[in-house]
Write a structure and sequence with these properties.
2 domains; alpha/beta; globular; 8 strands; single chain; 41% helix
Length: 318
C-alpha cells in the first residue's frame, strides 16, 4: 500500500530545530502515537525497525510520529558529554523529557486526538515514561525493552553483567563432555579469566539478589545529570512509573527474552516492585516475546512486537 508521510520541524525551548516524520493513516482512529528515538540513534532505529513499526500502526488507523529530539539525528544541538556511556545514563534519567513535551504540545494542538500514546525502545522507552509522567494529556506508554537500571561508567566498564555470565557459563556447561574442550583447558588455550569471572559473577548474583533493589524510595533531580551514579535501580524511572499509576495512566512493558534489559527488569523491578502495586494491576501489563533480542532482529520477533503493540493500543481506544 502507499504510505502518506510528512516531514515537519519545530524549535525547542533552547531554539534548537528538531525534526520528525508524521505517518498519516488512510482512516484515522483518533489516536496519536509519538515514537521517541532509541538512545543516541535517530528516528529510523536498527534495521529501519521504527519505520516498519510506524507503518504497521498507520495501517491500523493510528497517526504515528517518529521523532528526533535535539542533539540526535537530523535535529540541531550537541550532547555536552564525552563518553557514550555517560550519554546513555543521561537519556535514561530524562535528558530528552523537555523536547518530548514540546513535540507533544505541537502535535496535540495540530491533531486534537482523542487518545495520545508515547512509545519507545531502550532509551526511548525511558524518554516515553518520564515525559508521560509529566504530561496530563498522555493516556498511555508502550515501553519496549527499556533498561530499569543506571550504573556508574566505572562499574559498567569493569564488571561482567549476570546476563552475560549466564551465557558464558551455559556455553562451558555444554562442553563439559567434550574431550577437545578439556584439551584446550589443560593446554592453556581456554580463557581462564572469562571462565572464572563468569562463575564468580553468577554465584554472586545468586547470593546477593536481595541487594539488587536499593533506592526506589529515594528522590532525585533528573536535570542534574548525576542521579543514580554508582547505584543500580533507576529511581527516576521508578518515580515516573509511580506517577503513572497514581494518575491512572496505562503502560505495557514489552520485553524480549534474550536481552540484558529483561534480566534486570525481572530481577530488579518485576519481582521486587510490581508486587507493591496490586491495586494498580489493571493499569499495567507485562508482555514477553520469546527468542527475541534487544533489536528484534528476526522476522518472527518483529511481527510479534508489532502485533502486541497494535493489540494493546487498540484495546485502549475509546
Amino acid at each position: 500500500m502507499a504510505f502518506s508521510e510528512e516531514i515537519f520541524s519545530l524549535k525547542n525551548s533552547n531554539g534548537e530545530m528538531m525534526h520528525g516524520v508524521i505517518h498519516h493513516p488512510e482512516k484515522p482512529n483518533g489516536a496519536l502515537v509519538l515514537m521517541f528515538n532509541i538512545g543516541l540513534h535517530y528516528r529510523v532505529c536498527h534495521s529501519r525497525l521504527f519505520v516498519r513499526q510506524a507503518r504497521d500502526m498507520q495501517k491500523n488507523g493510528f497517526t504515528v510520529v517518529r521523532l528526533d529530539t535535539s542533539r540526535v539525528g537530523y535535529s540541531h544541538g550537541e550532547i555536552p558529554i564525552g563518553r557514550a556511556i555517560d550519554s546513555y545514563d543521561a537519556v535514561q534519567t530524562g535528558l530528552f523529557k523537555d523536547d518530548a513535551l514540546v513535540f507533544l504540545q505541537y502535535l496535540k494542538n495540530r491533531f486534537n486526538p482523542r487518545k495520545i500514546f508515547f512509545c519507545g525502545l531502550c532509551g526511548g522507552a525511558l524518554t516515553a515514561i518520564i515525559a508521560a509522567a509529566a504530561a496530563d494529556e498522555v493516556d498511555g506508554v508502550v515501553f519496549i525493552a527499556g533498561p530499569v537500571t543506571v550504573t556508574s561508567p566505572e562499574y559498567e566498564l569493569s564488571t561482567m553483567h549476570p546476563f552475560h555470565a549466564d551465557i558464558l557459563v551455559a556455553g562451558y556447561l555444554k562442553r563439559l563432555l567434550s574431550p577437545s574442550a578439556w584439551g584446550r583447558f589443560f593446554s592453556g588455550k581456554t580463557s581462564y579469566r572469562s571462565l572464572f569471572t563468569s562463575l564468580k559473577v553468577k554465584l554472586a548474583a545468586r547470593l546477593k539478589k536481595s541487594e539488587a533493589f536499593n533506592g526506589a524510595d529515594k528522590t532525585g533531580d533528573p536535570e542534574s545529570g548525576e542521579e543514580n551514579k554508582g547505584e543500580l535501580f533507576n529511581r527516576v524511572f521508578y518515580e515516573s512509573f509511580e506517577a503513572l499509576m497514581k494518575s491512572g495512566k496505562k503502560i505495557v512493558f514489552i520485553m524480549p527474552e534474550l536481552d540484558r534489559a529483561t534480566y534486570d527488569f525481572d530481577s530488579v523491578f518485576a519481582k521486587k516492585v510490581l508486587r507493591h502495586f496490586t491495586e494498580s494491576a489493571h493499569l499495567f501489563k507485562v508482555a514477553r516475546i520469546p527468542k527475541a533480542n534487544h533489536t528484534f532482529s528476526t522476522p518472527e520477533s518483529t511481527r510479534c512486537l508489532f502485533d502486541m503493540t497494535n493489540e494493546w493500543l487498540t484495546s485502549n481506544l475509546p
